Amino acid sequence: MLTQNEGMKNSIFNKKFAFMSKVVQGFSKLSKSEKIDWLITHHFHKDESARGLITQYWHNDEKLQGLHDDFIENTVSNFFLPLGVAPNFKINDEIYTLPMAIEESSVVAAAAKAAKYWGNRGGFRTELLGEEKVGQIHFCLPASYDRLNPFIEKIAPQLRQDLQDITKNMEARGGGIQTIELRDKTTALPHYFQLHVTFLTVDSMGANFINSCLEEMAKRLKVYLSNDAQWQEEAKDLEIIMCILSNYVPNCLAKATVSCPVEALEQEEGMSKRTFAEKFVRAVEIAQKEPYRAVTHNKGIMNGVDAVVIATGNDFRAVEAGVHAFAARDGQYRSLSNAYIEDDQFYFELTLPLAVGTVGGLTKLHPLVRWAIDLLGQPSAPQLMQIVAAAGLAQNFGAIRSLVTSGIQKGHMKMHLLNILNQMNASDHEKEKAVDHFKSHTVTHAAVVAFIQALR
Ligand code: MEV
Q1: 34 is known as an active-site residue
Q2: Which residue, 320, 336, 316, is CA-closest to 328?
Q3: Is 431 considered catalytic here?
Q4: Where are the alpha helices (DSSP H) in 240-375?
Q5: Residue 203 C-alpha to ligand 1 middle, in angstroms?
Q6: 342-385, pLDDT tens digit by residue?
Q7: How far is the CA of 300 from the centre of ligand 1 (A)?
Q8: Residue 139: how many CA atoms within 13 Å on its side-chain side?
Q9: How many CB atoms within 10 Å of residue 354?
Q10: Residues 6+ apart with CB under 8 A from 190
Q11: How far apart are CA 194 and CA 24, in angstroms?
């Protein structure tokens, strides 16, 4: 029998061993099936059902699977999200059906409902407020801004010229480098400057283009400083810290608006149209003033935004980061949307920074992304920005409307009902009965479980 001390030592050893056995060298060099073998052995106690689960999601078409395998490193399977569509989006008098990739039960239904609501009231009006993208060279140099700035202004035309190999195609499409500006950051960090560069990237999101331009520009900056007699000494201390695009794009904006006379709003249960409009406006004002509410309010907007951004193969992390920074641009995190009543007219509007593309990246590679872009009629990037803004506004409208009337859970749980039934492995017959029953009863997890158990 082990003493308590020995038992403890053993358990520490076992834990350490278990931990060590999960460390692997050269994993990326293994074939896909070797990777899965390793996972099943080291993380699933050799349980073959874990292999079955992961391989079940492979595509039958090897070529298509190969395409997905190559998107990232260490692909072992595909992770499915539902792709839904929200029809009847009237945007600037055109009708769109929006592709939405999202797992949350009620989002597509809410988008479709809001699209129908506003489709009957003139639809969404959208506009492009800017297309400017940003990249920065962050560098340190022991110099004064007043001396460095004229030098940068002098070499800026030459820098543009030097980048012609990278920029000429983009320029032919109407884009390229817009401005090159030295920014003095020395009060934030000693010797810290930025070359703040703005770009137009036309229909591409532009990340690769921007980063290539910046890296080449940084090399040239170093050469010009070193070769200039007046800068040779300081140039030895030049430190290029990094060159990278910024996902904060406050001048790459799309705005979506809906509006109608208060009296043309739909009659909500238990309140006048004016009360509904005023309550709605107050709810948005609360999100303007109160960060706890603003975060959830904006999350509702991003339900619609991300779903379209993902379906169209765009970088939703970039969009999310940029949008939330924009929501806090005056120092406090606030609602991205705005609502008001003026002369008995109800207005609801949303302005979003959106760096999205319809060419390049996944748009050519992923067959479903191609399909989604075709579904939208192959929009330009500025058009896609406006469609995404409309999706965000629709989603926000649907959420606020529910919140200030019936409450969010009614619609949410109605859509969630099928998830609960699936968790319980309900048969088609049971599902049919449950859906019918819960048309007139409140859906809660406990109520659904009780209903199905009673049936069984
Ligand atoms: C849920 O995904 C989104 C909402 O919480 C948004 C909101 O509260 O405005 C319903």
Answers
A1: no
A2: 336
A3: no
A4: 273-289, 291-311, 316-327, 362-365, 367-375
A5: 31
A6: 999 999 999 999 999 999 888 889 999 999 999 999 999 999 99
A7: 4
A8: 28
A9: 29
A10: 140
A11: 40
CA distance 454 to 324: 47
**Atom 3 of ligand 1: nearest residue by CA position:** 300
How many residues appear in the chain?
A: 456
Instruction: Give nearest CA residue, ligand 1 atom 1.
Output: 300
C-alpha separations of 332 from 288, 325, 391 in Å? 9, 10, 25
pTM for this prediction: 0.91
Sign for the pseudo-dihedral over CA of 209, 215, 218, 222: negative
Known catalytic residue at 412: yes
pLDDT one-digit tens code per residue, 265-315 = 999 999 999 999 999 999 999 999 999 999 999 999 999 999 999 999 999
Residue 104 appears among annotated catalytic residues = yes
Distance 131 CA to ligand 1 centre (A): 29
Residues 6 or more apart from 293 whose CB is under 8 A from it? 286, 287
List the one residue out of 404, 177, 170 whose CA is nearest residue 277.
404
Ligand 1 midpoint to CA 317 (Å): 19
Beta carbons of 260 and 385 less than 8 angstroms apart: no
- pLDDT tens digits, one per residue of 106-160: 999 999 999 999 999 999 999 999 999 999 999 999 999 999 999 999 999 999 9
Domain limits, the chain: 4-69, 85-128+254-380+401-406, 133-246, 412-455
CATH for 133-246? 3.30.70.420
Q: Tell me, which fold does domain 85-128+254-380+401-406 have in CATH?
A: 3.90.770
3-state secondary structure at position 83 = strand
Q: Is the pLDDT of residue 4 over 70?
A: no
8 A C-beta contact, residue 194 and residue 141: no
What are the two backbone dihedrals, phi and then psi, of residue 177, each rounded to the nearest 5 degrees? -80, 135
Q: How far is the CA of 296 from the centre of ligand 1 (A)?
A: 6
Choose, from 37, 59, 68, 104, the residue flagged as catalytic: 104
Binning pLDDT at 50, 70 and 90, where does residue 21 land? confident
Atom of ligand 1 nearest to the CA of 287: 9
For the residues 207-227, what does the mean pLDDT come to? 98
DSSP classification of residue 314: -
Which of 297, 402, 415 has most ligand 1 atoms within 8 Å of its beta carbon, as the pocket-test mutant?
Answer: 297
Amino acid at 36: I
Residues 348, 335: Cα–Cα separation, whole Å: 12
| Catalytically annotated residue among 42, 185, 299, 414 | 299
CA proximity to 156, closest of 137, 130, 131: 137
Q: How far apart, in whole angstroms, are the C-alpha atoms of residue 348 and residue 178? A: 33
